Amino acid sequence: MLALGVFLTRVCRLPGSDDNSSVEARAATLGYGANLRAFDHLRCEFTSRQGTAASAEDAKTGRMAVDRACDSVLFIDGSNIRLDNRGVSVQEGHKNRKGEPLAGTGLVRLARDFCVQSTYLWNGVEEMVHDAGMAINVYTPDLPASPAANNPLATGVFDWRLQMTPDRMAGLPGQFDLIGEGVQTLDGRPTVRARFITRSGQTAWVVDYDPARGYLPYRVQRLSRPEGTNVPLQLEVESWVTEAKDCGKGRFFPTRVVTVSPVGDGTSTVLFWETLVKSVDPDFKPTPETFAYRPSAGTPVIYFRSGLSPGFELDRSEAIRPSDLPSLVERAKLRLPNVTGEVVRRPRWWLWAGGGLGSVALLLLGLLIVRRLGRDKSPRPTSTPNSP
After folding, report:
1. Which residues, 6+ apart, have CB-to-CB distance to 382 below 8 Å?
2. Which of 366, 59, 365 is nearest to 242 (CA)?
3. Is 345 in contact with 335 (CB distance < 8 Å)?
4. CA pair distance 33, 24, nearest whole angstrom
5. CA geometry: angle at 349 spanning 345 and 352, to 5°?
6. Cβ pair 49, 68 in contact under 8 A
7. Domain boundaries along the sequence of the chain
8. What's the confidence (pLDDT) of residue 267?
9. pLDDT single digits (tens) 306-351
10. Average pLDDT over residues 68-94
11. Does the pTM of the predicted model rise above 0.85?
């Protein structure tokens, strides 16, 4: 499939043709999609780091101050995805591009909105997110999850599930317009530029494909403007794939991705998110245990659409796999018995509330009884016929 994208890019160079750039952009997008979808069985270990840099160029070249980091393991098997996040700190050995220890900026902490110890499962339809110490949340497509997740193949800008990427956008002409902008040169590297614009014109993605690396993007920019306005589109996020690995069979995997966003304080300072791949196995063969997640007994399971509804608690430490997510959603909706026929324990918030109200009622009753007894024992005044 990747060879098809290369072939189309070559034969579609038609000098003098008005739509030559558009044809090139479509062919490059096809090559990108072929490379991306070739990684359908994958195991990848990577580190995500966040902080600030004096400029986008500094972030690209590794001159940055890191204050948050997260180690992750990603598994892909067709439509099944598992992502395990394990929070780490800068002091635990992270180094800059020169191999020097990172000092970090200020107090190094594990921010919940960046990375918590968590596990994510997806089967292409239903999703599960479990942050350590919290309830398991299950989701359906009408209200998908938004976990603090990352995937090197998403190159810092696109949907990390790889459902809304340039090749998918190109297949939605009613939602996106694709405009070719010809061959460009970035950092001495020839790229094929494509611009995807939403029909509303409020958001655009500018993708510079690198033909020498399986049409991976070398740079992606996302631009936007406030809804209902006609001001020029402003840069929101910019991402660079600075390093990639040749995985054979015409496949290229991004191994270092730097995503930057302007701070907006009038300076060149940027916030950055860097993805560093430690290892990748593009031909990974999963075992039955690869996608088996085992939370502890008593863990609450909540169907997210129902907000803080009771859901149910796991009776035992049962394995949850992507194929189990539909039944998990139904059990959370209806609090059904589990697969073994055992009745699943309901959350005991109503017992706690009932117990608290019962305790208050008993206390009040006791006070009334004591008061009544006290009245019965106290001397009563007597009266005589001659009393005034």
Report:
1. none
2. 59
3. no
4. 14
5. 115
6. yes
7. 2-113+148-281
8. 80
9. 555 568 899 887 899 999 999 999 888 886 444 333 334 444 333 3
10. 80
11. no
Instruction: Quote the CA–CA distance of 335 and 312 in Å, as a whole number.
Output: 6
Strand pairing class (300-303; 251-262): unpaired
Contacts of 6 (CB under 8 A, 6+ apart): 31, 211
Q: Comparing C-alpha atoms, which of 71, 55, 98 is closest to residue 240?
A: 55
In CATH, the architecture of 2-113+148-281 is Clam (2.50)
At 56-74, the pLDDT tens digits run 999 999 998 887 888 999 9
User: What is the DSSP code string of 264-313?
Assistant: SSSSS-EEEEEEEEEEEETT----TTTT-B-PPTT-EEEEGGGTT---EE
Sort strands 270-281 and 251-262 into parallel, antiparallel or unpaired: antiparallel
Is the four-CA dihedral 184, 185, 186, 191 of positive or negative sign? positive
Residues 277, 253: contact at Cβ < 8 Å?
A: yes
Name the one residue in this structure whose structure tokens are 């359906």: 140
Residue 257 CA to its chain's centroid (Å)? 16
